[in-house]
Amino acid sequence: MKIVHGRVTTIHFFLTDDEGTLLDSSEEFGPLTFVHGKSKVLPALEKELLGKLKGDKFEATFYPEEAYGQIDKTLLKEYSIESLPSRGQKIEVGTLFETQRDNKEILMRVIKIEGNKVFLDGNHPFAGKKLHYIGKVLEVREATSEELKSGFAFS
């Protein structure tokens, strides 16, 4: 069965950047299962997988414009540590804060702390990176009506 829009697809993958740093992998959390065409994975990856069959291997490279975009410098912010709501959590590199921008929720990640100043980044962690996928199609099946409606695969 070929991968087409609306079919449930399961893949095993490794994602690296240009330096060969492993950014993500299905090895740690298990295979990735999604309904093809329901915007749960990168559209460029869906395009790459289109027409593949169970057992097919794939390799693909995506530039930032095809993946998570270039780094948006307007999403790099500096605050005093006192101005951030700690909500009982320790503020350290990696701490996440939810905020609103253009009526959308975005996550801001602490990327640096210098004395009383905290530097936040609202970009996706992979923004500005050229991404390299290597993987294998493990399964392709018809989606249930519930999966098609919700956009999420349930198996």
Tell me how many strands there are: 9
The geometry reads as elongated
- Secondary structure: helix percent: 10-25%
Number of helices: 3
Account of the protein in words:
By secondary structure, this protein is mainly β. It has three helices and nine strands, in the order ββαβαββββββα. Strands 1, 2, 3, 4 and 9 form a five-stranded antiparallel sheet that branches. A hairpin with a 5-residue loop joins strand 1 and strand 2. The longest helix has 7 residues, at 43-49. It is elongated.
Quick description:
By secondary structure, the protein is mainly beta. It is built from 3 helices and 9 strands, in the order ββαβαββββββα. 11% of the residues lie in helices and 41% in strands.
List the defining traits of the structure above.
single chain, about 160 residues, mainly beta, 5-stranded antiparallel β-sheet, 4-stranded antiparallel β-sheet, 9 strands, about 10% helix, elongated
